[in-house]
Amino acid sequence: MTENIQGSNTRFVHAGQEFEPHTGAVVPPVHFSTTYAQEAIGKLRNGYEYGRGTNPTRDSLQAQLAGAELGKHAFSFSSGLAAEDSLIRAILRPGDHIVLGNDAYGGSFRLIDRVLGAWGIGNTPVDMSNEQALTAAIEKNKAKLVWVETPSNPMMTITDIAKVAQIAHAAGALLVVDNTFASPFLQQPLTLGADIVVHSTTKYIGGHSDVVGGAVIVKDDELAEKIGFIQFAVGAVSGPMDAFLTTRGLKTLGVRMRAHNENAEKVAHWLRERKEVERVLYPGFEDHPGHDIAKKQMSGFGGMVSVQFSGGEAAARKIAESTKLFTLAESLGGIESLMNYPSEMTHASVKGTELAVPVNLLRLSVGIEDVADLIDDLDRAFGAL
Ligand SMILES: Cc1ncc(COP(=O)(O)O)c(C=O)c1O
């Protein structure tokens, strides 16, 4: 049903969301059953056997995610990191190597370095905009995976997906893109040459800060078979209620992202005019080093804005603790505005490493509230400096 549907919003609403044939229920019911009656030993009804392997609510989310990213196969997990862990273990073996951006999300780096490192997976962080360094790191380590986050969390670095795909493929590596910050409404990495997309669906896809989840999406059947096997054999699947909430969130992704884009742009411009601000990291600014690439590969600049303060750590901390509408909290991508101090919160695990985040930086996840109220909130907080 999804092949002929062109528009993102139509795919978000309809892919995998056929009405339930028994009653005609337009919203497919949530299936909580962990097991399924067999007609005879091993004779399954439509392939359903046991909830870790298949569940209709998860299947419908997976079809929706595949449609959203213009992929062929999607796998839904209990968190973004569970998705990343299963993906890496599906593809790599001890002795294999990952080249990743040197400003990757701290939790992804912790998983790759501290967890999978102990099981023999090597890693080299590189500046993804440095083609020579990237090529050298892949070739020297015979890397099998290149891992890109664009925009990156929280430095808002933009990486040219098509170019990195070419470099990775020429050296025999696969390209993974973590598309969490952009969301499939603004960017579809599989259409730009990436082999695999991962998401923390906890963020924009879920969209309401009420469900933790992750996803892996691919086009290739052989890759899908390997990932499907690990999903089943390891079992970090999303539960039915989580799958339902994620599906419900994804249906409205397009309308939410438009509001996030608009609000973030206004907030970024307002911040840039403040004398207390040293730098605003936002790919929508023409002088952002990744602006032209972002314009080429994204259909909007997203809802994330990072800001560095001339008053250093003390100023960043004061603002973080002074806003009222921007809630000081981990996570991002929900309808409500959040403020995060990465060096002590989301990225505390990479303190002291090459991936450490500046101590004068705050990350804003700009929500869909009325932007005048958001700016008033920031203005009042700036008054506390
Ligand atoms: C870019 C990015 N990737 C992956 C993750 C991990 O996802 P989760 O927290 O759902 O495990 C996060 C979480 O913040 C993230 O920001």
From TrEMBL:
Keyword DNA-binding: no
Superkingdom of this protein's organism: Bacteria
Enzyme class: transferase
Entry EC no(s): 2.5.1.48
Chain segments annotated as coiled-coil in the UniProt record: none
CDD domains: CGS_like
Name of one Pfam family that matches: Cys_Met_Meta_PP
Record's keyword terms, sorted: Pyridoxal phosphate, Transferase
Single GO term (MF): cystathionine gamma-synthase activity
InterPro entries in alphabetical order: Cys/Met-Metab_PyrdxlP-dep_enz, Cys_met_metab_PP, PyrdxlP-dep_Trfase, PyrdxlP-dep_Trfase_major, PyrdxlP-dep_Trfase_small
Cofactor(s) required, per the database record: pyridoxal 5'-phosphate
Family: Belongs to the trans-sulfuration enzymes family.
Name of protein: Cystathionine gamma-synthase
Native species: Glutamicibacter bergerei
Taxonomic path: Bacteria, Bacillati, Actinomycetota, Actinomycetes, Micrococcales
